Fold:
Amino acid sequence: MDGVWHKRSWGGSVENVSVLVAIGVDSTGHREVIGVAEGMKEDAASWEAFVRSMIERGLKGVRLVVGDRCAGLVSTVGSMLPEAKYQRCMVHFMRNVLGKTSSRHSAWAARALKAVFAMETREKALAKAEEVACEMEGCKLASAARCLREGIGETTTYLLDEFPAEHRTRIRTNNMIERPDREIRRRTRVVGSFPDGNSALMLVCARIRYVTDNEWSTRRYLDMSRLDDNLNPAN
Structure:
């Protein structure tokens, strides 16, 4: 699989079985499922085996990995995809921060975080985040402030100059996998339990195939020519 962008994320879990799902965007800008595997847990060993299997099948050209804050995934990106950047899902990050705020401050905190991600440059976003963190500390929300400071760097990767502004709204979140994920969860809730991991994997693959065959085949997800513009130095 020779592609320009690749995104990957966790697809779901059934009982004590996790299913790892990788979705990529190829050089034409179309989405494609490039890997599905059973992982007993989302640890580094499971992610490394998963990524290694895709590399052995020809995966290359990975420039960006988008996912939830899974330590196993983050470490795997650094060790096995050294040329790729990691983008933490903005939506999940905001939920993590808001989960550490009191109900009295939640509305204000949500607006403040949205203001951070509305910034046009990474430098401005980081500066705004620090301003918000200081305000949180003033409201005795030290835990939320700490969470914001610790995660804002990897959550603003999408603002780096090497990534086109036209791609930002689609590369800063896990939204690309949400539709398959919802379908997987809907079907697994109906089944309830599985005799083994392979049975769960077969159902997940069937539902992913259903979603991709009906929605993805003719829709271009990203204009990849914009990526080339960013890579070519200006004369």
User: Anything to note?
Assistant: Residues 1-15 have pLDDT under 50 and may be disordered. The radius of gyration is 19 Å. The first strand starts at residue 3 and ends at 14.
